[in-house]
Amino acid sequence: MLSLTKALLALRRAEPGLHAGSYRSLEAPEGCFAYERGDGEERFVVALNFT
Predict the structure, then answer these.
(1) In Å, what is the CA distance from 3 to each residue of 9, 10, 50?
(2) Signed CA dihedral, 38, 39, 41, 42: sign only
(3) Residue 9 and residue 1 in contact, taking contact as beta carbons nearer than 8 Å
(4) Beta-bridge partners for 10
(5) What is the domain partition of the chain in residue ranges?
(6) Sign of dihedral through CA atoms 40, 44, 45, 48?
């Protein structure tokens, strides 16, 4: 789990679209959370499942 967390943090640092720019919540089923984030050139969809 630690290596996954480190890899995700490195990805966040490397991709400006994941930490800057616009943010939009997306509809997601119960127990999930989803959003779209982007800096104009790149857009990312992040989906988390809490179940």
Answers:
(1) 10, 11, 20
(2) negative
(3) no
(4) none
(5) 2-49
(6) negative
- Could you write out the DSSP letters of every residue in 1-51? -HHHHHHHHHHHHH-GGGTSSEEEEE---TTEEEEEEE-SS-EEEEEEE--
**pLDDT, tens digit, 9 for 90 and up, residues 18-38:** 888 899 999 999 999 999 999
Residue type, 20: A
Nearest to 46 by CA among 28, 31, 29, 34: 34
pLDDT at 41: 84
pTM to 2 decimals?
0.77
